[in-house]
User: Fold this.
Amino acid sequence: MRNVIVVGCGRVGSRLANMLTDNGANVCVIDRNAASFSNLGRNFNGSTVQGIGYDEDTLIKAGVEDCDVVAAVTESDNANLMVTEVASRLYDVPHVIARLYNHDHERAYMQLGIDFVCGTTLVAEEVFAKAIAGHGSHVDTFGDFEVLSFSLDLSWRERGAIRVHEIERDHDIRICAFERKDGSASSIPTGDSTLYHGDTVLACVRHDLIDSFSQYIQS
Assistant:
């Protein structure tokens, strides 16, 4: 079972802490304001420590010496950076993650080898991707490509079936996986695999080809 310290108990930190405990992790939440722990709710199954997240004594109380992950998600970029530096450099925590507000610092964080999540960038990319992809099928964005998960629409096609290589050839995309509509089977396809109307498909599609491919996506 993983031992995780979450620094910051605002909306993001409290949500993250509960998600982690629900997933079986041992979680300790640090916040300088004890009143913030109320955000965790009554069903939170972890521990809390009041204090400053980059203070060594506070981190030791939270269990940093036997910690697998430290996530710094306060509302201060400087505080989050200091937490990750202390956790990684002084206590050799294997995985440290910082929340980043100022997206202008992303390149510097990458050059420093700091694992980070930028809320501003993620929200913008998410909205952009959904606007481009449509149909609520967006999973992720990867460079010029969109990863989509959708229910396959072949209602317009005779027999409601198509070979994977036909879709990939005609639309310059890649079908990564599929699941039968009744949930009876899932598979990583070959070119000769047959897809049927209503199957759930995971596909990688270039942004500029999504419009032409949309005929396959059930709205």
Notes: Residues 177 and 197 are 15 Å apart (CA to CA).
